[in-house]
Amino acid sequence: MGRWTHLQGLCNGLHKGAQEKLKASGWNGVFTEFKVVDARKQLVAGMNDFVKVRCSGNEFIMLRLFEPLPNTKKKSELAVVKLTSENSEVEYFT
Questions:
Q1: Which of 18, 38, 58, 69 has a 20 to 30 Å separation from 29 between CA atoms?
Q2: Distances (CA, A) of 37 to 25, 51, 52, 54, 85
Q3: Is residue 94 part of a domain?
Q4: d(CA 76, CA 88)
Q5: How many domains does one find in the chain?
Q6: Do 49 and 39 meet the contact criterion of CB atoms below 8 Å apart?
């Protein structure tokens, strides 16, 4: 896994929540895989991770994760999930 090992671990724990958020917005798909393919970071009072994930063959989603500062002892959370394409760049989104 290499480059994205840490983020892949975070995403694995948020797999179910990401699928539920998409279904709540009307998406009918099923995740057959959940592999980080690209990511960017934004330092805030913690870390925002913008993560592109392959969720099945040629379907991709974008996740915005928030990792709180370690001293807060809070868990990372899934802030936003949206559908995207294979060719889309990872960038800030709300």
A1: 38
A2: 23, 8, 6, 7, 12
A3: no
A4: 25
A5: 1
A6: yes
Q: For residue 37, which of 76, 80, 72, 3 has the smallest C-alpha distance? A: 3
d(CA 17, CA 13): 8
Cross-sheet strand order for the sheet of 35-44? 35-44, 46-56, 59-68, 77-84
Domain that holds residue 42: 2-84
**Spatial distance between the Cα atoms of 78 and 57, rounded to a whole number of angstroms:** 23
Per-residue model confidence as pLDDT tens digits over 65-76: 999 999 999 999
- Within a domain: 90: no
What CATH number does residue 19 fall under? 3.10.450
* Helix intervals (H) in the chain: 5-24
Residues 16-48: tens digit of each pLDDT: 999 999 999 999 999 999 999 999 999 999 999
Does residue 92 lie in a domain region? no
